[in-house]
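Note to self: user wants both folds in one dump. Writing first protein now.
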Amino acid sequence: MNMNKKTEVGLRLKQLRTKQGISQKDLAELCGWGPSRISNYESGLRSINLDDADMLAKHLGIKPYQILFDDDELTNFANVTTIDIQPNYQKSFPVLVRFKQAHGQKRVSPT
C-alpha cells in the first residue's frame, strides 16, 4: 500500500503513543493542545511541523526524528557522510541540527 507522508507519520505517532499507554486526549493536554489535534495528526489530516514533533517527542520520551522518519529513512540518513545546513536554516530546523549532532556529525557548516 502506498501511503502519503502525512499518513505514514500519523500512523507512526499512533504506534509510539499507544506503546507508551497514553491516550490522544492526555497527550494533547500534555502538549497544551485541543483533543482533535492528535487525532488529526494520526489520521493524516494534518501535517506535523518540526516544533510540534519536538513537543510530542518530549512528552513521549523519544526523539523527534522517531516520529518523522521510519527505519529505512533513518538508515539512509545514517549513510550520509555530510549534512550541510546553511546558517539561515539552522534556527528554522533545530530538529535536523540535533539529529546531525546525535549521529556523529562533528559540526554544522554552511555550504
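First done. Writing the second protein, which came from a different request thread.
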Amino acid sequence: MELELMRHSWADLQGVGGEVGMMPRLVLDLVRAKDRAQAEEACTRINSLVFWNGLLSQVSPALASALVHGLWHRGEHSEDLILGLLADIAGGFVDERDSTAFGEVSVEDCLREVCRGYPAYVEILETGVNADSRTACIDLIVQCGLADSGLRDRSIFFLVEAVRRADLAQYRSVIEDSLNEPRAVEGG
C-alpha cells in the first residue's frame, strides 16, 4: 500500500480546501487505526479535504486508488469507513457550471479507480460481518456495474444470488431496490 501512496504527487493535487499533501498520512491512519475513534478521526479529516456537498475534487481518483489498496490491509475498525469513502467517491459528481472548482477531476476517472476494488466488494458482501460494510458493498457493486459494462451482468448476477442467501436476508429490500438501475441499463 505504501508503494501506491508513493505513486501519487499528493502535494500537486487539490482538495476542496486546497492542498492535500497530508493525505498519505491520513490514509495510513485510517487503514491502520488501532481503535474506532482513531479510524473515525482519520475518515472525518479525509472527508473534509475531499468532498463538498457530494462534489468530487482533483484528489478523488488518487484517494480511491489508495483506499482500494488499503482494503487489503484494513483493520477491523476501518473497513466500513473505507468502503463508505469509496461509495461517496463512486456516487460523487463534478460541478457542471465549473468542472475545475476543486481541480481537474472527472467522474469517469474516479469510477475507474473504484472499480479496481470490485472483487473485494463482492467478497465483503458475501462473507463480511459488518452491516455498514455490506451495505456500502451493495452500493459499490451497483456503481461498478453501471460504470463498467463488463461488470454489469456480473453485478446483476451477484446481487440476485445475494438476495437468495439466508445470511443476507436483512439486506434483501436494499439489494432488490439496487438491482433496478443496472437492470434498466441492461434492458435499455
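Dump finished. Worth passing along: The radius of gyration is 16 Å.
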